[in-house]
Design goal:
It is built from 9 helices and 8 strands. It has a 6-stranded antiparallel beta sheet with strand order 5-4-3-8-7-6. Strands 1-2 form a two-stranded antiparallel ribbon. α1 packs across α3 and α6 crosses α8. The relative contact order is 0.12.
Length: 246
């Protein structure tokens, strides 16, 4: 009989096997992604179904509504999202582009909210989804205003190459972060997806460290970074001041 600690780690492995765009996973794929034996993954999945954390979908399982309900109780993300949405709406209206709100978790960014534009390119990002921080404007904006140990942990984990233009050389990456600290704006020039540009700016806490980031993304042949950068920078600064008053 596995210990509670062993079960917990296996349950986490099963739950984190799901990606943002997964509608459901079969037993074989769940086992492959979780790294567990098929019989173990299946048994854990059934227990999670009983708990409401997973739902049955024929012979497949998908993330359950209870997980969403629990996620909505996370104070940092909820407060940040609720405060950010009005500014995000204004940014989308002003730029006619897709606006993102993201936070850092480990070496990845997690997208808390996305307001899409009608003619925006298909983005690699999704609400609740993750991307390597080094390959995104929001990730670089957050890291530029994070403690040195946070940046070092990302470097130690290895910079992930997502697209042909993703910066993966540690020296070049740290120099880019220094420039972002000076200017207050980070850029993704087709690093997270072909044809996609992004300007991002950090949302800062009272201590001057980033608690998240806003970005505006669009097609490289339709959006001028120089035009949208001041707007996203202003929105992020104003949001930071709003949060500081709460």
């Amino acid at each position: 009989m596995p210990s509670d600690d062993t079960f917990l780690h296996r349950a986490v492995a099963v739950l984190t096997a799901f990606r943002a765009d997964d509608d459901g996973l079969g037993a074989a794929e769940l086992a492959r992604r979780s790294g567990l034996p098929r019989s173990t993954a299946h048994r854990i999945a059934l227990d999670l179904v009983d708990a409401g954390l997973l739902e049955r979908q024929g012979t497949r399982v998908r993330l359950g509504l209870k997980l969403f309900e629990i996620g909505q109780r996370v104070p940092r993300q909820r407060v940040l999202r609720d405060a950010a949405v009005p500014y995000m709406s204004d940014l989308r209206e002003a730029t006619r582009q897709t606006v993102h709100l993201a936070v850092l978790e480990g070496a990845e960014v997690v997208y808390v909210e996305i307001l899409g534009a009608s003619d925006a390119p298909r983005m690699p990002s999704q609400v609740g989804g993750r991307l390597p921080a080094n390959a995104t404007g929001v990730g670089k904006a957050i890291l530029a205003f994070s403690p040195p140990e946070v940046v070092q942990a990302v470097l130690d984990a290895g910079l992930v190459k997502v697209g042909e233009r993703t910066v993966v050389a540690p020296g070049l990456f740290t120099r880019e972060l220094a420039k972002i600290r000076e200017e207050g704006v980070a850029y993704d020039r087709e690093e997270s997806g072909n044809g996609i540009l992004c300007a991002a700016s950090p949302v800062l806490g009272p201590d001057g460290e980033a608690i998240g980031a806003l970005s505006v993304s669009g097609w490289s042949n339709r959006m001028r970074l120089a035009a949208v950068a001041p707007a996203v920078h202003t929105a992020a600064l104003t949001l930071s001041r709003t949060l500081a008053r709460r």
